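Postdoc handover notes: sequence design on the structure in folder B. Input tokens:
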């Protein structure tokens, strides 16, 4: 809460106050460079705040041991943004099938047969059943994203974090994946946090929306209320208008 992050003299998060309600889908929406990935890295305990507190399941990440942090992370499924060679956090030396199966072998005590069944089912859900043998380097950006999503959802974790859902995905696949994520959330009642630049994702998927700009949460609350807000930045972002507070030049 009230998280500030500075890299040298640059203040990247300027008092981010983001509550992610349990058992619902929250979309962290904002333009490129707003601080979405840096926020996610704080929630994963990969970055430590310059000021403020980050809590997951009530635990202050700064107050727990490395082992406890590891346990907190094991309770989460994550799709990282990442670029080559760390595409969406996939294991670069494992093929699509093994990327999904590996997570299940690590985190469950399921039989090989069950792991095989769940892996194939997860790949079918994201439409990659015919590409199970491909290596991450042979995938398009959207296929890599779908592989990472299959891996994350197969685990049925109580916390699911997906950074930059829209990158690499065409609007049809994006819409279909939103439905997959919604089904998965309803099935498991997970707490889901998705970041995106895409308004359509926010409309399709969000129970709650937090809009971030220049390291600050501009609006936060139930999706309809936020997306219908009169705040100038919200209006511009929702409508895609050229005139408004958001311009090409980064401030
Ligand atoms: N390790 C770092 N060191 C210095 N600056 C960083 C670092 N990581 C991120 N930044 C800066 O923090 C700001 C926010 O970056 P961030 O990656 O969180 O944006 P984002 O909202 O995820 O954007 P996108 O939608 O393009 O993924 C940017 O100005 C970026 O240059
Ligand atoms: Mg990002």
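Designed sequence:
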């Amino acid at each position: 809460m009230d998280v500030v992050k500075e890299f040298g003299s640059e203040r990247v998060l300027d008092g981010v106050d983001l509550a992610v309600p349990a058992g619902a889908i929250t979309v962290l929406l904002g333009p490129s460079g707003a601080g979405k990935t840096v926020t996610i890295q704080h929630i994963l305990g990969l970055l430590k705040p310059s000021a403020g507190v980050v809590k997951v399941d009530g635990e202050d990440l700064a107050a727990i041991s490395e082992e406890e942090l590891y346990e907190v992370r094991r309770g989460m499924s994550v799709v990282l943004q990442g670029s080559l060679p760390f595409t969406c956090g996939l294991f670069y030396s494992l093929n699509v099938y093994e990327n999904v199966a590996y997570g299940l072998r690590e985190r469950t005590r399921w039989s090989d047969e069950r792991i095989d069944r769940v892996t194939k089912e997860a790949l079918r859900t994201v439409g990659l059943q015919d590409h199970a043998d491909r290596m991450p380097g042979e995938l398009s950006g959207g296929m890599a994203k779908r592989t990472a999503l299959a891996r994350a959802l197969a685990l049925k974790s109580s916390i699911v974090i997906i950074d930059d859902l829209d990158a690499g995905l065409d609007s049809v696949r994006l819409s279909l994946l939103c439905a997959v994520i919604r089904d998965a959330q309803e099935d498991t009642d997970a707490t889901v946090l998705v970041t995106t630049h895409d308004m359509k994702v926010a409309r399709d998927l969000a129970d709650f929306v937090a809009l971030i700009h220049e390291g600050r949460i501009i609006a936060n609350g139930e999706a309809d209320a936020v997306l219908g807000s009169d705040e100038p930045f919200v209006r511009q972002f929702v409508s895609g208008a050229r005139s408004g507070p958001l311009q090409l030049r980064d401030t």
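Context for whoever picks this up: The radius of gyration is 18 Å. Don't rerun without checking with the PI first.
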